[in-house]
Specification:
- There is one protein chain.
- The chain is α+β, with helices and mostly antiparallel strands and about 210 residues long.
- It is built from 7 helices and 8 strands; from the N terminus they run H-H-H-E-E-E-H-E-E-E-E-H-H-H-E.
- About 35% of the residues lie in helices and about 15% in strands.
- Helix 4 crosses helix 6.
Length: about 210
C-alpha cells in the first residue's frame, strides 16, 4: 500500500525517466513492521466486526507524538478493491467526526470561565441553527434526560443535549477557533457552522484528528 501510494507522487515530481533510470532513493518515516501490523489489525477488525456495524472499509494513521512523523499510514483496507472504492484515501477524506469534537467544546467553555463542576441542564431544548436557518432538538443516546449534570459527567457520558447547550454558551466561532489552534484544518464551509458542529455536524479528516 505505501509503495503504491509513493509511486504516483514520485512520477509527478521527477518524471517517468527519473523513476526508471536515475536510481532515486526514497527516505520515509514509515515503520514497515508497524505498517504491516496495522494493515493486519485493520483487516481483522473489519472482518470480525464490520458486518454488524455496516462497515467494509477503514483507515488508520499513526504519528510519533514527539516529532509528528508518520509511522504508519493505511488509507484504505485494500487499495485494489473497487467494491469498497479502495483507491480513495480515507486518511485525508472528509467524514463526520461523531462526538470527537465535544472535548474541544467543553475546553472552550472552560477557557471562558466554566469549571468541571459547572451544572448544565440536561432537559429538552430546541436550538436555532443559523447555518441551516432551521431549528433542531438534540437527544441523548440514553433516550432520557438527567436534569442538572456537572460538565465533567456530561462530557464523560457524551451527552448530546448538554454538549449543544455548552457550545451555545461557549460560542460556535470560539469553539472553531479552539479547534483551529489544535490543528484542525477543514472548517471552511462557506455556509458556516451551527451548534450541531459539536455532535458531528461537520466534516474533518482522520489526519487532523
Amino acid at each position: 500500500g505505501v509503495q503504491t501510494c509513493a509511486l504516483p507522487i514520485m512520477r509527478r515530481r521527477f518524471g517517468e525517466n527519473a523513476l526508471r533510470d536515475q536510481g532515486l532513493e526514497v527516505t520515509t518515516t514509515i515503520d514497515l513492521s508497524l505498517q504491516h501490523k496495522t494493515e493486519a489489525t485493520l483487516n481483522k477488525t473489519i472482518a470480525d466486526f464490520g458486518d454488524a456495524a455496516g462497515a467494509h472499509n477503514g483507515a488508520f494513521v499513526g504519528l510519533d507524538p514527539k516529532t509528528g512523523q508518520i509511522l504508519t499510514y493505511v488509507g484504505s483496507r485494500d487499495y485494489f478493491d473497487d467494491k469498497i472504492e479502495g483507491r480513495n484515501d480515507n486518511v485525508v477524506a472528509r467524514n463526520s467526526p461523531g462526538s470527537t469534537l465535544k472535548p474541544f467544546t467543553y475546553m472552550t467553555a472552560f477557557m471562558n470561565g466554566w469549571g468541571t463542576g459547572t451544572a448544565i441542564m440536561d432537559t429538552p431544548v430546541s436550538v436555532a441553527d443559523p447555518s441551516t436557518g432551521g431549528t433542531f432538538s438534540p437527544r441523548d443516546p440514553i433516550g432520557s434526560y438527567l436534569g442538572p449534570v456537572a460538565a465533567d459527567r456530561a462530557l464523560g457520558n457524551s451527552l448530546n443535549v448538554t454538549a449543544i447547550k455548552t457550545i451555545v454558551s461557549a460560542g460556535v466561532q470560539n469553539t472553531i477557533g479552539t479547534l483551529k489552534k489544535a490543528g484542525y484544518t477543514t472548517f471552511d464551509n462557506p455556509g458556516g457552522y451551527g451548534p450541531a458542529l459539536t455532535t458531528g455536524g461537520s466534516e474533518i479528516t482522520l489526519l487532523d484528528q
